[in-house]
Amino acid sequence: DAGITQSPRHKVTETGTPVTLRCHQTENHRYMYWYRQDPGHGLRLIHYSYGVKDTDKGEVSDGYSVSRSKTEDFLLTLESATSSQTSVYFCAISEGTGHQPQHFGDGTRLSIL
Amino acid sequence: QKEVEQNSGPLSVPEGAIASLNCTYSDRGSQSFFWYRQYSGKSPELIMSIYSNGDKEDGRFTAQLNKASQYVSLLIRDSQPSDSATYLCAVNDMRFGAGTRLTVKP
Known about the structure:
The structure holds two protein chains of two kinds.
Chain A: E1 4-7, E2 10-13, E3 19-25, E4 31-38, E5 42-51, E6 54-57, E7 64-70, E8 73-78, E9 87-94, E10 103-104, E11 108-112
Parallel strand pairs in A: 2-11
Antiparallel strand pairs in A: 1-3, 3-8, 4-5, 4-9, 5-6, 7-8, 9-10, 9-11
Chain B: E1 4-6, E2 11-14, E3 19-25, E4 33-38, E5 45-50, E6 54-58, E7 61-66, E8 71-76, E9 85-91, E10 95-96, E11 100-105
Parallel strand pairs in B: 2-11
Antiparallel strand pairs in B: 1-3, 3-8, 4-5, 4-9, 6-7, 7-8, 9-10, 9-11
């Protein structure tokens, strides 16, 4: 299995609080992605990174920010969590030959009350 | 708005049958197409990629691409209960369909 670790795996928090999710990879892949998955919507891209300090927005980036200070780590921050951000969040990586994620982490189940 | 559409299912087939999963996309400029399998409660895994019109076979899986009609399909031959999962279609701009849930009945 590809070395991707997401933390935490589960989190419950309250509306208005900041939340940070971490993705750590040991594959030295260039591309990293954050997706959210909701019933009826499939996977939707939040942000992605194509290198250290190089990031770009996906289709549902409002309310989220990301940072990548090292090749192996990609952080997703919810500035002020809302109930609409309750979801399962997946991190993914790619070697960079294309834009399509090749390996996914196990996911973080986030509940915002 | 670029769209990737899949029938949400559930699609139910008997063991040993051929399962046919379909996906349509709206962006005519799309060049790369992918199929992922996702077991319940698990993360997606990449199972097939296709870039040219026609068929691509990998074991019991065949991906079919028709760019003129803007559809891509996945055929699973000799379906097994272990193939029961949700199958996600994706195109090269990192956009996914909502997935089709497949159930293979023994």
